[in-house]
From TrEMBL:
<dbReference type="InterPro" id="IPR047817">
    <property type="entry name" value="ABC2_TM_bact-type"/>
</dbReference>
<keyword id="KW-0812">Transmembrane</keyword>
<feature type="transmembrane region" description="Helical">
    <location>
        <begin position="151"/>
        <end position="175"/>
    </location>
</feature>
<feature type="transmembrane region" description="Helical">
    <location>
        <begin position="121"/>
        <end position="144"/>
    </location>
</feature>
<comment type="similarity">
    <text>Belongs to the ABC-2 integral membrane protein family.</text>
</comment>
<protein>
    <recommendedName>
        <fullName>Transport permease protein</fullName>
    </recommendedName>
</protein>
<feature type="transmembrane region" description="Helical">
    <location>
        <begin position="235"/>
        <end position="257"/>
    </location>
</feature>
<dbReference type="GO" id="GO:0043190">
    <property type="term" value="C:ATP-binding cassette (ABC) transporter complex"/>
</dbReference>
<keyword id="KW-1133">Transmembrane helix</keyword>
<keyword id="KW-0472">Membrane</keyword>
<dbReference type="InterPro" id="IPR013525">
    <property type="entry name" value="ABC2_TM"/>
</dbReference>
<feature type="transmembrane region" description="Helical">
    <location>
        <begin position="181"/>
        <end position="199"/>
    </location>
</feature>
<dbReference type="InterPro" id="IPR000412">
    <property type="entry name" value="ABC_2_transport"/>
</dbReference>
<dbReference type="Pfam" id="PF01061">
    <property type="entry name" value="ABC2_membrane"/>
</dbReference>
<dbReference type="InterPro" id="IPR051784">
    <property type="entry name" value="Nod_factor_ABC_transporter"/>
</dbReference>
<keyword id="KW-0813">Transport</keyword>
<feature type="transmembrane region" description="Helical">
    <location>
        <begin position="66"/>
        <end position="87"/>
    </location>
</feature>
Length: 263
C-alpha cells in the first residue's frame, strides 16, 4: 500500500520536468519528426478534396451547405491529432520503455512513477495538438475553416490528444515486442480513421455499421471540430463519453505501464 501511495504521488514540477525533457529532444529533431506524419493528412486533404470534391460538389450537413473540401478539412485535423498522439504514446513510449530505458532512468531521479507517466502522457497530448494545429493552419490557409474556429477548437484537440495519447500508452504498456504495436494500429486506429466521419457523414453507413461508427472514440472529436458548421443534437452526451473514455484509458495506461516496470 505504501509503495502504491508513493507511485501515485504527483509533483507539478516533476511532470513538467519530464515533459520538458521530451520537448528538448523534439526541438533537436522536430523537422524529421513532424513532416512525415504531418504529410499524410495534408496529402489526403489535397488528394480527396481536389480529386473527389468536384465530383461531389456541395451537400447539406446539419443544416449547413458545405463543399466536400470544407467537410473534409476538420476531419483531417482530427486525423492529425489521432496519429500524432497515438503513435507518440505507442511507438515512442515503447522505445523509451523497452530499448532506451528512459522511464527507468527518470525513476532514479527524485520523481514518482506518476510524475513520469503524466509527463509522458502530457507530451503525447502536446504532439497531438501540434499535429492538429499544423494541419488546421493549412486548412485555414486554403479557406476551408474559419481562423477563429481553429482557435476555439484547441480544447477539442487537447481532449483528443489526451484520449489517443492514453490509448497509445496502453499499447506501450501491454505489448511485448514492437511488432505487436501493429495490432491496435490495424484493428483499432485504421478502422476508426476510416469510419468515424472523417471522409463522409456517418449517416451514410448502412444498418448496424452506422451505430458502430457512432461509438468509435474519434467520432466525437470529428464532430466537435466541425462545430463552425453545426453540432449533433446529442453533443453533450458525446462530451461526457469523451471525458469518461479519457479517464478509463488514462487509468488503464497508468496501471499497464506500472505493471511492466515494477512486476
Amino acid at each position: 500500500m505504501k509503495a502504491l501511495a508513493t507511485a501515485a504521488a504527483v509533483s507539478p514540477w516533476g511532470v513538467y520536468s519530464v515533459w520538458r525533457r521530451h520537448a528538448d529532444v523534439y526541438r533537436i529533431t522536430w523537422l524529421s519528426n513532424l513532416l512525415p506524419p504531418m504529410s499524410e493528412p495534408i496529402l489526403y486533404l489535397f488528394a480527396f478534396g481536389a480529386g473527389l470534391g468536384p465530383m461531389i460538389g456541395s451537400f447539406e450537413y446539419l443544416g449547413s451547405t458545405l463543399t466536400y473540401a470544407q467537410f473534409l478539412g476538420p476531419g483531417m485535423i482530427a486525423v492529425a491529432v489521432l496519429f500524432q498522439s497515438f503513435f507518440e504514446g505507442a511507438y515512442a513510449s515503447f522505445i523509451r520503455l523497452s530499448f532506451q530505458k528512459t522511464w527507468q532512468a527518470l525513476l532514479t531521479a527524485p520523481l514518482s512513477y506518476t510524475d513520469v507517466f503524466l509527463g509522458d502522457w502530457l507530451w503525447a497530448t502536446t504532439k497531438g495538438v501540434i499535429g492538429g494545429s499544423a494541419t488546421g493552419l493549412v486548412v485555414v490557409l486554403l479557406g476551408l475553416y474559419p481562423p477563429v474556429g481553429l482557435l476555439y477548437s484547441l480544447p477539442v484537440m487537447v481532449l483528443g490528444g489526451m484520449l489517443f495519447g492514453a490509448c497509445g500508452l496502453v499499447t506501450a504498456g501491454t505489448v511485448r515486442i514492437i511488432d505487436q504495436v501493429n495490432l491496435p494500429t490495424f484493428l483499432f486506429i485504421i478502422p476508426m480513421f476510416a469510419l468515424s466521419g472523417t471522409y463522409f457523414p456517418r449517416t451514410n453507413l448502412p444498418g448496424v455499421s452506422r451505430y458502430f461508427a457512432e461509438i468509435l472514440p474519434l467520432a466525437p472529436v470529428v464532430d466537435f471540430l466541425r462545430w463552425p458548421y453545426g453540432l449533433p443534437s446529442y453533443w453533450p452526451w458525446q462530451l461526457v463519453g469523451l471525458v469518461v473514455l479519457i479517464a478509463v484509458a488514462g487509468s488503464w495506461a497508468w496501471w499497464a505501464i506500472r505493471q511492466r516496470i515494477y512486476l
